[in-house]
Design a protein that fits this description.
Number of helices of chain A: 15
Largest interface: A-C, 33 and 31 residues
Structural class of chain A: alpha+beta
CATH superfamily of chain A: Cytochrome-c3 Hydrogenase, chain B
Strand content of chain B: under 5%
Oligomer: heterotrimer
Helix content of chain A: 40-55%
Shape of chain B: globular
Number of strands of chain A: 8
CATH class of chain A: Mainly Alpha
Chains: A alpha+beta (368), B mainly alpha (169), C mainly alpha (375)
Order of helices and strands of chain A: EEEHHHHHEEHHHHHHEEEHHHH
Distance between the termini of chain B: 69 Å
Number of strands of chain B: 0
Largest sheet of chain A: 3 strands, antiparallel
Chain lengths: 368, 169, 375
């Protein structure tokens, strides 16, 4: 029996304006019914040439630009950049500044994971979680705002330390947030973790094994959900992370559900770090001796930190002039996104949405 | 009033049937068939056969035609439109049409020998649901069950035919 | 012509004219309740507490440009939303609001609702197909598959009700519940709860509500079958959707919760407390709520209505519609609750749930109810 009429393969263009491609990601899906046969990822709609801009700005001038890459975790971006430049010029932030940086970075990790949780729950149709997570994220943003006046692109740190002393109410605000957030985390888990539909939508979806993670250079929660215990805060501590007592959550499911659980657990661990840091903010200077005009000696440096989304690295080459000769960013979102095709082929359209959600990308960082 | 409704429904039925065989776009054909079936349902209603009316809509329009459309939407329509239509057999169709009309004419003139004249439908009889159920499940229980068995066999056969063939290694 | 003979026409006219407005307010109520679940306020800008929001929305939709995609099948594109609305409104014909307030008492009432719902599917299929858009087509395919799958379970669960009542007429079903002194929800020694459970799940799927809102899953296929619709035609789809929700809630209230009957309808001495004091108390409570929101005209209105309800003659006349709409609202609230709590199922999971779990369960419930009913 010959088939005169073939069922048609459908070419579905998802994005760049699509409710769940988180900004301006464009996917070209080849579908057989609802099953994905091929994925092509088209990026670059948000490309601003950040790395090239870096070559034409002084080291200090460029610092605010990094906030605009992963704008959800601007503090982490700033931390990585400051650490890289400090290593290049051979300076180190004073202890007080280091602990404050850790505090802000962890608060930012919570804010970033909260936004991730809300939006990816919305992608799966659980709209209520978004409003709860945004409510809690607001508290974090308020702390940022009270500290430096900005909520999103904070530019909170300076090369060599901090520009501003902590505001008077910082400790009380952060403590209150920490107290409140512990209970709220349990609430989220009640809403989602054991919800049968939530589990069924995520379990076994978008599996990326430890080996595949390594070959794609995937980092962050995705890697740890695949059973690899790799977190730069433990593996190569920076900014005084070695002083804190916290755990790196590791799960072995390698699927979207474990990525979700990893991020929830990471928020708990961030709270632990925040609680400890609040106890031991040392007094003293907040700024190291840094020359007014930065002219590092020729050389190169690569510094990476554990941003909420994975390994965020800065590779800076100096030729001894006022501007970097080359400034290269290793963005976790971009590298992690490359594994999308591996996970999405053979899945259903709805799974693609779940997978994009649990990769946790920010297009500002993917495109730079 | 009844006559006007009858002619309206009859017109819908015939127009739908005509659209079904004349339209080139399969979706339009299906839509024509839907309207034709709805017209028949209306005729049932005029005969006070409410159950048949509802079942006609529920099964034929809501079930069968949805499946038709489902399949039509999944195939290449442009390709389907290029396939040879049955229009080249119009002499045969004309002959068949003539035969059918002749048959109807003869029947209408003489009636079928051996059958009693059709009874007038009992209007406002309080529904014929129970009576249909009685005749299906009590009087004609065996033929009914036999028919359902036949349908079951057809379903199993269809699943067997439609299942994907294993690729020979 | 007497008032009794005119009443059905009057009812039909009221339904047809008022329901677009009612739909608007159903949407507002849904948004407000969802907002309550989600720690926010919902619409607040247009009118006090957003009370005029539906009017503003309707005006906006009417004034919007009505776009038709290039290469769309124009005839079907125009026809599809009309099909949806007409079939949705048709179901009003057999919904009884009280023993006298109804348009028609057909002896196939329940079947008619199923049949019209079945025809309503074409609004989704044809709208999605004629748009000439991949998202619409995917939505249409999902809608078609989902609706015919869940219609089976829905029908099977309603058959158990018909077995108890012995009639397909909506009015007859309510009267049967009065005569048997029990809501069918608790019929057959509680076994009907299973049927209701199946009915509720299938009903949610039938009206495309979360967690079964796959045909219009925003985060996957943008807006599904009505992606390409805009302005008034889009509004027609929304009208049909919310009308269907109302209908399915009304069916649930009628066949499982005793329709317009008050609770314990057979106990005489409860007549005044249930028909007058309870509604009045509810109205007073609402009046107090409005006072807290500083909506004093509404406080006055609700308070006076509460007082009026205490007059025995008024209570007897109005209690039936009151209980009917209270039950419909309760079911509607549950649907919103589902939407606020659950993520969306995936397409294959939806089909699995329908065919592998719900339909066998419904068949089992049917058999069990039949056996118990025969004893």
């Amino acid at each position: 029996m010959t088939n005169h009429l073939e069922t048609s393969e459908m070419l579905l263009n998802m994005g760049p304006q699509h409710p769940s491609t988180h900004g301006v990601l464009r996917l070209v899906l080849k579908l057989d019914g609802e099953r994905v046969k091929a994925v092509e990822c088209v990026i670059g709609y948000l490309h601003r040439g950040v790395e090239k801009i870096g070559e034409n700005r002084t080291y200090m001038q460029f610092a605010p630009y990094v906030d605009r890459m992963d704008y959800i975790s601007a503090v982490s971006n700033g931390l990585g950049y400051c650490l890289a430049v400090e290593q290049l010029i051979g300076a180190e932030a004073p202890p007080r500044a280091q602990i404050v940086r850790v505090l802000f970075a962890e608060l930012n990790r919570i804010a970033s994971h909260l936004l991730w949780l809300g939006t990816s729950a919305l992608d799966l149709g659980a709209m209520t979680a978004l409003f709860y997570t945004m409510r809690e994220r607001e508290e974090v943003l308020k702390i940022f705002e009270n500290y430096c006046g900005a909520r999103l692109t904070t530019h909170a740190f300076r090369i060599g330390g901090l520009q501003y002393e902590l505001h008077d109410t910082f400790e009380a605000e952060t403590r209150a947030f920490s107290e409140m957030f512990k209970k709220r985390l349990d609430e989220y888990e009640k809403l989602l973790t054991k919800n049968p539909i939530w589990v069924e939508r995520l379990k076994g979806v978008g599996i990326l094994t430890a080996e595949e993670c390594k070959s794609y250079a995937v980092s962050g929660p995705m890697l740890r959900a695949a059973g690899v215990n790799w977190d730069l805060r433990k593996a190569q501590p920076y900014s005084g992370y070695e002083q804190f007592d916290f755990e790196i959550p590791v799960l072995h499911g390698a699927d979207s559900y474990d990525r979700y659980r990893i991020r929830i657990e990471e928020m708990r661990q961030s709270l632990r770090i925040i609680d400890q840091a609040l106890e031991r903010i040392p007094s003293g200077a907040i700024m190291a001796k840094v020359p007014k005009v930065l002219k590092p000696a020729p050389g190169e440096v690569y510094v990476s930190i554990e941003a909420p989304k994975g390994e965020l690295g800065y590779y800076i080459v100096s030729d001894g002039s006022l501007h970097p000769y080359r400034l290269r960013v290793r963005p976790p979102s971009f590298v992690n996104l490359a594994s999308l095709e591996k996970m999405a082929v053979g899945a259903l359209v709805a799974d693609v949405v779940a997978i994009i959600g649990t990769i946790d990308i920010v297009l500002g960082e993917v495109d730079r | 009033m009844d006559a006007a409704l009858f002619y309206t429904f009859a017109a819908i039925t015939l127009a739908g049937a005509l659209a079904t065989v004349t339209r080139r776009n399969p979706v339009h054909c299906a839509l024509g068939l839907i309207f034709s079936l709805l017209g028949v349902a209306g005729l049932f209603l005029l005969q006070a056969a409410e159950l048949l009316f509802a079942v006609q809509i529920l099964l034929y329009v809501g079930g069968v035609m949805v499946l038709f459309l489902f399949v039509i939407m999944l195939i290449h329509l442009e390709q389907a439109a290029r396939l040879r239509q049955y229009s080249r057999q119009w002499p045969v169709a004309l002959a068949a049409l003539f035969a059918v009309f002749l048959e109807i004419y003869v029947l209408a003139q003489s009636g079928l020998p051996g059958l009693p004249p059709s009874p007038q439908p009992r209007l406002n009889a309080g529904g014929n649901t129970e009576r249909i159920a009685d005749s299906l499940f009590y009087v004609y229980a065996l033929p009914f069950e036999a028919a359902s068995l036949l349908l079951l066999i057809a379903i199993v056969g269809a699943v067997w035919l439609a299942r994907k063939k294993e690729q020979p290694q | 012509m007497t008032f009794e003979t005119l009443l059905p026409y009057l009812m039909a006219a009221i339904f047809a004219m008022a329901f677009p407005l009612v739909t608007g307010y159903l949407v507002l109520v849904e948004r407000k309740i969802l907002a309550d679940f989600q720690a926010r306020l919902g619409p607040m800008r247009v009118g006090p507490h957003g009370l005029l929001q539906p009017i503003a929305d309707a005006l906006k939709l009417i004034l919007k440009e009505d776009t038709v995609p290039k290469d769309a099948d124009k005839f079907l594109f125009y026809l599809a939303p009309l099909l949806s609305v007409v079939t949705a409104f048709g179901s009003f014909a057999v919904i009884p609001i009280s023993a006298t307030l109804r348009i028609a008492d057909l002896n196939i009432g329940l079947l008619l609702i199923s049949a019209l719902a079945a025809v309503g599917v074409f609004g989704i299929i044809l709208g999605g197909w004629s748009s000439n858009s991949n998202y619409s087509l995917l939505g249409a395919l999902r809608g078609a598959a989902q609706l015919i799958s869940y219609e089976v379970a829905l029908g099977l669960s309603l058959v158990t009700v018909v077995m108890l009542s012995g009639t397909l007429s909506m009015q007859g079903i309510v009267e049967a519940q009065f005569n048997q002194r029990i809501w069918f929800l608790f019929g057959n020694y509680g076994l009907m709860l299973l049927s209701f459970f199946i009915f509720l799940i299938a009903a949610v799927a039938e009206v495309n509500r979360a967690p079964f809102d796959l045909p219009e899953a925003e985060s996957e296929i943008v807006a599904g079958y009505h992606t390409e619709y805009s302005g008034f035609r889009w509004a027609l789809y929304m009208l049909a959707e919310y009308t269907n929700i109302f209908i399915i809630c009304a069916v649930a209230a009628t066949v499982f919760f005793g329709g317009w009957l008050r609770p314990f309808a057979n106990i005489e001495w409860l007549a005044y407390p249930m028909d007058a004091i309870f509604p009045a108390a509810l109205l007073f409570l609402s009046a107090w709520g409005c006072a807290r929101m500083k909506l004093f005209p509404f406080t006055a209105l609700l308070g006076i209505s509460g007082l009026v309800f205490l007059i025995p003659a008024v209570a007897t006349a109005l209690s039936a519609p009151f209980w009917f709409f209270l039950k419909v609202s309760a079911v509607f609230y549950v649907l919103i609750w589902f939407r606020a709590s659950w993520p969306r199922l995936r397409y294959d999971q939806l089909m699995d749930l329908g065919w592998k779990r719900l339909i066998p369960l419904a068949l089992g419930a049917l058999l069990a109810n039949a056996i118990i009913g025969m004893l």
